[in-house]
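Minutes, project check-in
Item: structure for the 166-residue chain
Input as provided by the requester:
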Amino acid sequence: MEPRSSGLQRLVREVAKFGTVGVAGIFVNLGVFNLVRHASDLPVVRASIIATVVAIAFNYVGFRYWTYRDRDKGGRTKELSLFLFFSAIGLIIENGVLYLATYGFGWDSPLQSNVFKFVGIGVATLFRFWSYRTWVFRVQPSHEAESILVAESKRPHSEQKSQRVP
């Protein structure tokens, strides 16, 4: 039972770290969005895309060097390519919600734009968490092997013998 609980503890820590970087990224995203929106004549979705790109860069640094610093560091080019690919899908999800609210329903006040920007970030975050932990910041093979060995060592000796092939 203990390997499961340590796996659950690792997941809880991962979600907490992901959430911390994510919350900071939300502040970056919304801050840049409002700054660009009010300091320029750009349409709402274009301002949002600029803000999302800035937040993606911010989040990559936070995820790579804090949340997932213990993950496989080999193949940084592949990691960054996958991160950008999944981030682009998240960008489409996030800004698709804002686009639909703004141009589909005509909800374009500053408050409405911020609410739907925030909703879009939330929906896209679910996708990003799954894709980043599954495809981008993969667990190092040594951690998986170590977990299996720890689980094997805790099983009763008779159970280990019965599963061996003679």
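Outcome recorded: The radius of gyration is 21 Å.
No further action items on this chain.
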